[in-house]
Write a structure and sequence with these properties.
The complex is a heterotrimer of chains A (432), B (476) and C (306). With 432 residues, chain A is mainly α. Chain A is 65% helix and 5% strand. In chain B, 45% of the residues are buried. Classes of the chains: A mainly alpha (432), B mainly alpha (476), C alpha/beta (306).
């Protein structure tokens, strides 16, 4: 031993010295390391805040809209009582408004056309509707309320600014003056954008709503749930409770783990090839979408169900078997009910995941423009995430805020589902 | 549609249960039965439902291909002599017309009249098949029910039989998982092989030109498309690298902080928030990338470039001023954010699986936390973390929405993160959305890409899961 | 080579079976004459530990209490532990002896919700004082755990771990010297000299435990704490460790927690008996085993409860 002959006191002092010297450096490194960790979490959570903040910032304006309430003289000279939709009500209203303001238009009607573009086609539908319901309104003056056009709405919300160069904005100085005046005298009012929640998709942003997509997503999830939950729970019960461990179950197990990690777009290819090209199921329908999502959700549900079945202690099974219950009775009367909270939690989470899945829907045609609200699982329909994709691709600026609003609706559904799962877990979780 | 028969069969099955129950109760009078009457009811229910449903499912799956074969077997000569892809298009239109839908294209004489007659024939074949299947299913249900009722009696072991059926049913459920894999493999392989008949595998795998704009008809000009997928592979790889460069350090350090430093309160707050980040649909990330990150990055680089212009780095400045929204960096960075919670939660599990005794051993030696983490825990957890990162890589390669919305379509063979690149998944989406030509090389190319994607991710997953499992077993 | 276990052929080693948590594995490997039950009732292990001059007090605990959240695990322990001596802590499971051991190098700091009150003076300095850095304290107080826990590194790197993190060496040669000296002192050198760069986890259980001891002494500590160091080992490996402990006694203050009274009798000069979080009795090992003052001590060492 090298230090055996040296004075132990001196050795100790020297050693303590050496230790002390390194300590400062070591603690600096420790602090740095800890900071990296904190920084990483700050980055992750910062992104979350940024992501949600940006979407709320972009989307909140879509929840209110500007609408115009105007007296319309139902000019008998221009309205055909048998074909009211043939009348250009927007132009008619524009001319009436200009006349009331005392503006004289040129021969081409430039002013009237400019005024007309501030009004949405909803005005025409509502006016034509009035005529159809009661032809006697022709010749009278009626008050009609309708949304303003998307560009007018954006200006009133401050998203198009006067300071921008006039040739780059879609709304002229004069149109801005008109809108300001209308806003001032209360003809144009700001209110809750109910159209967003009562309409299907539309090519005109001011008339586009998410209801069609919400119904489409709901129908699709219904199909997914009806197929994936029984199949998934059944498969998990078989693998966990009945299957003898062997080559086949090993194969199934490896297979399920891999299926859970297959890219979602591959499921889209499967759906396209199998359900549409071979089985000729209707394209763009919630049925096909639901089937594809069911196959995707299946592995997740199986894995979640198996782990909650595993968590039920063997003593429960032994107790039931000892009472003379058969294997099936043991499983269905005792084990499965006890595992149910876990199964439901896992299932709801996988459904929420399926709700947000987009890529496979692109391939089975759920990104085509589907106006209106689907009524059956075999009709063409959109879905919330694919609506986000469609609107994001749209060129109209007004679709941007609606895209963010659609995302907020989608996230709201997902939050509700996840909260339900968490509540279930809290309420029924049992520690064995 | 045969599927509408399912509720009918369900009603029949419930009726069979009720009848079985009643029959059993009557026949048991005085005797001590082996099984309870309800179990006989279930027995009848199974015998009504299972054969009928089996017929419905088989008919649903196979009536399409069978009617197609029947229709093409009896085609008139003029149609027989058409080029294969035109014939397929013709057949498809005939089927659509027969189903009362609008055909894809208009056909010239004599095919317009032929189309009408073929549509009628197709419709009648489909009708025959449909009614045949319905009759078959109903007969099966009735026969099954009669068979079951005949067997009901005190000595019949209804419970055991029902349980055997339930076992078989559950087994069938788990076989669906295997069938899904088989389905994926076959649907990809079938169309991919048809693609490789037209484009040699070597050209696909090693070609450096990608421009799949094949014309609809062979006689059109400019009908040659190039299907060299190397630019796509390179683009996918580049975006994956950028994503991992973001996700791996941030995810790993979050996991380390959460498992070794954070108290229960911090963990209780941060973990659910990370789960929220994980639950955000990828289309939302795509929106974020396209409308927030992309413009922000472009403005930054353009502004930075403007500063350099005229200086010694004038060339770089000129280049930076032209950078567009759709750069690989944007898609990669946002994908990296998406992967943070994935990497973090997997690494967290893996670091937690390192036995406490190793931590104790290190602390007892006077090691600080960072020394324990970097010198003991990370080396011990290395294989597991490698597996987790491989799983993340597989995710990154298969991710579709972010790249579709933020990466762009230009198939540039480049490793410059500020350039626009395209990926395998983007091209699959592009090739299969919009106007689809029936059976063209362009459409089929998507399946070639899909097969490649599936095989690569499958390989990554198998390797990663094997590594993670071996790692876990080591500390069990 | 003296092997205390085999030295006494009269069945005295049966005392090991009095250990209440002897697991099945261990029982299988232990070659016992027979009649566990008989020996449990009436048998007191004979003290065979070498008598040695007890050194000056190294560690002085004063009124130590430990709380895990609401639960109090230790109640006012006061105890002097002498230098250059093996002190054994005995007592039934859950009696607080390991908890007390972990107070000495402040390993309880790493457990969430643990709170320690009272003083532990080491060379007159309170280890719980704010000014004392647990990192430095632990460089002074080595610890060996119940289960051998070599790091998943090479044998060499395992031993070099302490000197490396504490920055005790300046050159490769110096490190080689420390590794060799530590392995020699731990009695492992001859067995591993030719495979220093293979994984430490590839060694047998007993070798692993000696590797862990070598790792602990590589930083040249003053105190070595051992928490049931032999409970996961077979009798032959146990004998080797016990022999090693006896050799190390000459240089270090050693505290060993053990479930086996026979082991306490074989290796320790001083013994402290813990029960239900309280220190019942302490003193020279010989006295505790032959002439305990407390009834509970007698009952425990004769195997009437445990």
């Amino acid at each position: 031993m090298t230090d055996a002959t040296v004075d132990p006191g001196a050795v100790r002092a020297a050693r303590a010295d050496a230790l002390q010297k390194g300590l400062k450096r070591r603690y600096a490194r420790e602090a740095r390391f800890r900071t990296y960790g904190l920084l990483a979490i700050a980055v992750a959570l910062g992104f979350l805040v940024l992501l949600l903040g940006r979407i709320i910032e972009q989307g909140h304006t879509a929840f209110y809209a500007n609408q115009i309430t105007v007296p319309v003289y139902m000019d008998p000279a221009r309205i055909d009582r048998d074909y009211p939709q043939g009348t250009n009500f927007q132009l008619m209203v524009a001319q009436q408004r200009l006349a009331a303001m005392g503006v004289t238009d040129d021969a081409q009607g430039t002013q009237a056309n400019a005024y007309r573009t501030l009004l949405s086609s909803e005005l025409k539908f509502r006016a034509a509707q009035l005529v159809r319901e009661d032809p006697s309104v022709i010749g009278q003056t009626v008050q009609i309320t309708a949304p303003v056009s998307d560009d007018a709405d954006l200006y009133l919300k401050g998203k198009i600014k006067r300071s921008e160069p006039a040739e780059l904005r879609r709304i002229s100085d004069q149109q801005m003056d008109w809108l300001d005046a209308l806003k001032r005298d209360g003809t144009v009012t700001t209110g809750f954008n109910s159209l967003l929640f009562t309409q299907g998709d539309s090519t005109e942003p001011e008339l586009a709503g998410v209801l069609g997509a919400v119904v489409g997503s709901a129908l699709m999830l219904l199909v997914t749930a009806l197929i994936a939950i029984p199949l998934g729970v059944g498969a998990a019960v078989y693998l966990e409770e009945f299957a003898r461990k062997g080559r086949i179950t090993d194969l199934i197990e490896v297979n399920i783990n891999n299926l859970a990690a297959v890219p979602s777009i591959v499921y889209g290819l499967l759906g396209l090839a199998l359900f549409i090209n071979v089985a000729h199921l209707p394209r763009s329908s919630p049925l096909v979408g639901g089937l594809v999502l069911a196959l995707m959700a299946l592995p997740t549900i199986i894995i979640a169900t198996r782990s909650s079945l595993k968590a039920v202690p063997p003593s429960i099974r032994e107790a039931a078997l000892a009472m003379g219950a058969s294997k099936t009775q043991t499983v269905f009367h005792h084990v499965l009910p006890l595992a149910m909270p876990g199964v439901m939690t896992g299932t709801i989470i996988s459904m929420a995941h399926a709700l947000g899945e987009t890529a496979p829907l692109l391939l089975i045609g759920m990104v085509s423009f589907v106006p209106g609200i689907p009524g059956a699982i075999t009709e063409p329909a959109g879905a919330l995430p694919s609506l986000v994709y469609i609107w994001e691709n749209a060129s109209e600026l007004a679709f941007h805020e609606r895209t963010a609003a659609a995302i907020l609706v989608l996230l709201a559904f997902m939050i509700v589902m996840n909260a339900a799962a968490i509540l279930l877990r809290r309420r029924f979780e049992r520690r064995w | 549609m045969i599927w509408f028969l399912i509720p009918v069969v369900a009603v029949l099955a419930l009726a069979a249960y009720a009848v079985g129950l009643a029959v059993a109760k009557r026949r048991f009078a005085g005797a001590k039965p082996h099984s309870r009457p309800q179990q006989h009811g279930y027995y009848a229910l199974i015998w009504v439902a299972v054969p009928a449903l089996a017929i419905i499912i088989l008919a649903g799956i196979f009536s399409g291909p069978v009617s197609q074969n029947l229709v093409s077997a009896g085609l008139p000569e003029a149609v027989q002599e058409m080029e294969p892809f035109r014939r397929d298009a013709f057949l498809n239109d005939a089927r659509l017309l027969g189903e009362g839908q609008r055909p894809f294209q208009t056909w010239d004489a004599p095919f317009d009249t032929l189309l009408q007659s073929e549509a009628a024939r197709s419709a009648s074949i489909q009708r025959t098949l449909l009614w045949g299947s319905i009759a078959g299913a109903l007969i099966a249900a009735v026969l099954g029910g009669l068979l079951a009722f005949a067997q009901i009696g005190p000595n019949m072991r209804a419970r055991n039989r029902v349980e055997t059926w339930i076992g078989a049913l559950l087994f069938a459920c788990s076989v669906v998982a295997i069938l899904t894999t088989v389905g994926i493999v076959f649907s990809l392989l079938f169309d991919a092989l048809r693609f490789f008949e037209r484009v040699p595998v070597t050209e696909f795998l090693f070609g450096t030109q990608w421009s799949p704009q094949t014309a609809i008809r062979a006689d059109q000009v400019g009908s040659t498309g190039a299907f060299g997928a190397v630019p796509l592979f390179a683009g996918t790889f580049l975006i994956m690298l950028i994503a991992m460069a973001v996700a791996a350090p941030v995810g790993l350090f979050s996991a380390i902080y959460l498992s070794e430093y954070a108290g229960p309160v911090t963990r209780g707050v941060v973990k659910p928030l990370l789960e929220v980040l994980a639950g955000v649909p990828t289309v939302v990330y795509g929106f974020f990338a396209a409308l927030t990150v992309g413009p922000a990055f472009r403005e930054f680089f353009n502004g930075f470039g403007a500063l350099l212009v005229g200086g010694p780095l004038d060339g770089l400045g000129q280049y930076l001023m032209l950078v567009q929204n759709q750069m690989a960096l944007v898609a990669g960075a946002v994908m990296g954010i998406m992967l943070i919670p994935f990497v973090s939660s997997l690494s967290d599990d893996i670091i937690n699986a390192v036995p406490q005794s190793l931590r104790d051993g290190s602390y007892a030696m006077g090691a600080t936390k960072s020394e324990t983490v970097s010198r003991v825990l990370l080396p011990a957890a290395l294989p597991g973390i490698a597996g987790a990162l491989l799983l993340a890589v597989s995710r990154a390669i298969g991710e579709t929405m972010i790249v579709t919305m933020a990466a762009g379509l230009a198939a540039n063979l480049t490793f410059n993160p500020l350039d626009t690149v395209t990926t395998v998944t983007v091209q699959i989406v592009t090739l299969l959305t919009g106007d689809q030509e029936f059976d063209s090389a362009k459409t089929l190319a998507a399946f070639g890409l899909g097969l490649t994607l599936f095989l690569v991710t499958l390989l990554l997953n198998i390797v990663a899961q094997r590594i993670v499992q071996t790692y876990r077993e080591q500390y069990d | 080579m003296k092997l205390p276990f085999f030295r006494s052929p009269d069945g005295r080693e049966g005392g090991t079976t009095a250990e209440p948590t002897a697991d099945a594995n261990r029982r299988d490997e232990t070659v016992l004459p027979q009649g566990e039950a008989a020996s449990e009732e009436s048998f007191t292990p004979t003290v065979t530990a070498p008598k040695a001059p007890v050194g000056p007090t190294k560690i002085a605990a004063r009124d130590i209490s430990v709380f895990y959240g609401e639960k109090q695990a230790l109640h006012g322990i006061s105890l002097d532990i002498p230098d250059k001596t093996v002190t054994a802590f005995i007592g039934p499971s859950g009696c607080g002896k390991s908890t007390f051991l972990r107070c000495i190098n402040r390993m309880n700091d790493t457990i969430q919700g643990a709170k320690v009150t009272g003083q532990i003076l080491m060379d007159g300095q309170d280890v719980n004082a704010r000014s004392v850095d647990p990192v430095l304290l632990r460089a002074q107080v080595g610890m060996v755990f119940q289960k051998p826990n070599p790091f998943p590194k090479t044998i060499y790197e395992n031993v070099a771990y302490g000197p490396r993190i504490h920055g005790l060496t300046n050159s490769k040669a110096e490190m080689d010297g420390i590794v060799e000296a530590s392995l020699k002192r731990a009695g492992l050198w001859d067995e591993v000299a030719d495979r220093l760069h293979t994984a430490g986890t590839g060694l047998s259980g007993g070798q692993q435990q000696r590797l862990v001891i070598a790792r602990a002494i590589a930083v040249n500590p003053e105190v070595i704490l051992m928490d049931e160091p032999c409970s996961a080992l077979d009798p032959i490996a146990t004998a080797k460790i016990e022999e090693l402990i006896d050799e190390l006694r000459e240089r270090y203050c050693i505290v060993i927690v053990t479930h086996s009274m026979a082991q306490a009798a074989r290796v320790s000069q001083r013994t402290a008996f813990f029960h239900l979080g309280r220190l019942v009795e302490h003193g020279d090992t010989e006295e505790i085993f032959t002439n305990p003052r407390e009834r509970r001590t007698l009952d425990y060492i004769t195997g009437r409860f445990g």
